[in-house]
């Protein structure tokens, strides 16, 4: 409960953090600064967009970008920080990553290079720019419960709760909400999705799961931290004709998954969309604020968009600037 | 019986065989001139530290290639070494996370590596499955076992011995560098300075001739797979130290770099064959190029293409050079 209480305290901090975003950024500048941007990978929409947002904003503010890509290998991502340290960049924006990056952040701090993280809270980071994960977790919890009408058995993909703080927040708050629905059962053991080739891995695991739980014994599948595995989950449900009786919920809401949600009769019924490009941009602006001696809070939260059902997906797709869906 | 003698490689074959090396050297010069701070001791340290797991797995792979022959399909190849390294790292991390001791964790990881090596050896030398197919399947199986062991989760490790391997230095250089060097030197001594190593090389050079000489080539090839698995075991500690724990998915990149470095290393050999020291130098060269491109700020969306192209060039020139022998 202490963990949950601290999460809710963080949610309260959101209201304190948002004013920082409202500041006039017309005078912000990174002129003459070389900013290292380390991204864990660029294969997934979220990662790529956060990277693109940070890179373009650094350049718009007059800075020079030195970018390194971990190729979705956390180890390579961590090692890439050494290269930025060696290059003597003025600051680093580090996008995602697991605990392997912490010693690298410490080394940077020791060398006087400020580190700004994206979706990775760290004691070595000046500021972490992230979605409101507390809101994401509780919202998807409510949407899941509503979609199930308060009862059913749900399988959970949850590989990253112990290694990524943002995933812990999202998943634990999802579970917190479901505690108020005694007729919803979360199946054990939880499933562990893969980091690389997530959709295909989830597809195979879902096929195994469906053979374990015949029709009527499984009502939903939730992916606790993101939604790339949900693509494979939906594929498996459609392959086996189970898309009528098993619902899917997940988090992130990129254009690819919103398009799946918007299909007629899609089992993918709830999501919470993030704004990764904006997150990257705001992180870059925070670097500029730091160099302008503005005070920064440890965390900057960026708004998210709840996506409820097919209609919600169509609306969110347009609202987030991805185009229009019929 | 043919009386044909083995002719020395032609000038053209030598030039073609050296082409990848010349290309890499030219790239290094270009990087040195264009990447900020590239020509520094800190960069050298970075290159060495980041290449250590690759150096160890390359050493293991080179033993298998030297014993089985350098035909990638029908000769000696062991693609399962990176997966073995990641499995051993996962076992140690999982055991340590449950407050188990490092000694027992090490023994369990060692047994797992031995099991992988012995199964590979049995499948190749007893059943007759090709090494490529055997070890590719083993790679998939071992990654699956690791996923079961770790539940596909990252497991942080803060055991003092692992942190020591990560952080300690000797004469200002990370202690992991001389330790990895000792492992590579031990394998080099075995491969190039012992009777057993010469027998393994003789097997890879010409299996028929080795058998006529009375060597038990099946046993020697089996031994090479076991030694390769043990190299994977040794590499696991460098993986754990480098990553402060075990992270899922590390094996893919390690596999790519191992194959690239080992076959690139053949360009260092006068006869353009895989050697242990060539593989080690190849691993360091690959790390240098990789760090160099990143230091130059090469667009991240291009790096995959560049790496893939380099592998194609190395493999293609190797094949052309072999035809010209």
Can I get a quick summary?
Chain A has helices spanning 2-22, 45-60, 74-87, 102-110, 133-147, 165-178, 198-212, 228-239, 255-261, 276-291, 309-319; strands at residues 34-39, 64-69, 91-95, 115-118, 127-131, 152-157, 184-186, 220-223, 247-249, 268-273, 299-302, 305-308. Chain A is an alpha/beta fold and 326 residues long. In chain A, helix 2 links the parallel strand 1 and strand 2 (64-69).
Structural overview:
The complex is a heterodimer of chains A (about 325) and B (about 325). Chain A has about 325 residues and is of the alpha/beta class. Helix content of chain A is about 45%, strand content about 15%. A 6-stranded parallel beta sheet of chain A has the order 2-1-3-4-5-11, sandwiched between helices. In chain A, strands 7-6-8-9-10-12 form a 6-stranded mixed beta sheet, sandwiched between helices. In chain A, strand 9, helix 9 and strand 10 (about 270-275) form a beta-alpha-beta unit. In chain A, helix 5 (about 135-145) packs parallel to helix 6. Chain A is elongated, with a radius of gyration of 20 Å. Chain A starts with a helix and ends in a 7-residue tail after the last helix. The relative contact order of chain A is 0.15. Mean pLDDT of chain A is about 90; it is low at about 1-25. Chain B is globular. Residues about 1-5 of chain B have low confidence and may be disordered. In chain B, the strands form 2 sheets. In chain B, strands 1-4 form a two-stranded antiparallel ribbon. In chain B, strands 2-3 form a two-stranded antiparallel ribbon. Chain B starts with 10 loop residues before the first helix and ends with a helix. Chain B is mainly α. Chain B contains 13 helices and 4 strands. The interface of A and B includes residues 67, 75, 86 and 103 of A.
Task: Summarize the helices and strands and which ones pair or pack.
The complex is a heterodimer of chains A (326) and B (325).
Chain A: H1 2-22, E1 34-39, H2 45-60, E2 64-69, H3 74-87, E3 91-95, H4 102-110, E4 115-118, E5 127-131, H5 133-147, E6 152-157, H6 165-178, E7 184-186, H7 198-212, E8 220-223, H8 228-239, E9 247-249, H9 255-261, E10 268-273, H10 276-291, E11 299-302, E12 305-308, H11 309-319
Chain B: H1 11-34, H2 41-68, H3 81-97, H4 102-127, H5 131-150, E1 155-156, H6 160-167, E2 169-170, E3 173-174, H7 176-193, H8 195-205, H9 207-212, H10 217-243, E4 245-246, H11 250-265, H12 276-296, H13 303-323
Antiparallel strand pairs in B: 1-4, 2-3
Helix pairs in contact in B: 1-12, 1-13, 2-7, 2-8, 2-10, 2-11, 2-12, 3-4, 3-5, 3-10, 3-11, 4-5, 4-10, 6-10, 7-8, 8-10, 11-12, 11-13
